[in-house]
Write a structure and sequence with these properties.
The protein contains four helices and four strands, in the order H-H-H-E-E-H-E-E. By secondary structure, the chain is an alpha+beta fold. The chain has a four-stranded antiparallel sheet, with helices on one face. Strand 1 and strand 2 form a beta hairpin. Its main location: membrane.
């Protein structure tokens, strides 16, 4: 009986369908729009530029249905703290961001983790993880 219960749970989980092809396309488009929007506000810290520093800052932020940034926090970073300061300035300044598709919302909001790479040349291209096409992880 115990195993039949597990089989039933697995069957129910298997029957749950994921996002449709249209929803996936809509989500990818939003990820692209979000990163493009945020990158318009991103600037390289001058002290870091002069010292030739590079790094990455991973930020977790929550966006509501209208694109308003509700909260954000630094998840991790590499390199100089100058990059953390830059991100702390530009992420709030970028609000509102493009509104997320309704299919991505959970209780009217979405949590996103995104890496922001600071690099002066092409040597840092592998610095950001390849979690999705635009390096955004939506939760």
């Amino acid at each position: 009986m115990k195993y039949s219960w597990i089989a039933l749970v697995l069957l129910l989980c298997a029957c749950t369908s994921g996002p449709s092809r249209e929803q996936l396309a809509e989500q990818r488009l939003w990820e692209y729009q979000l990163l493009t929007h945020l990158n318009h506000f991103k600037s390289y810290p001058e002290d870091a530029r002069l010292q030739g520093l590079a790094g990455m800052v991973r930020v977790k932020f929550v966006v509501d249905a209208k694109g308003n940034l509700i909260r954000h926090e630094i998840v991790s970073h590499t390199g100089s703290d100058l990059f953390v300061g830059a991100v702390e300035k530009f992420v709030p300044a970028a609000s509102p961001v493009p509104a997320p598709p309704p299919s991505m919302l959970l209780k009217g909001e979405i949590e996103v983790v995104a890496p922001f790479v600071f690099c002066l040349d092409q040597t840092c291209t592998g610095m950001a993880p390849r979690s999705s096409s635009n390096n955004v992880i939506a939760r």
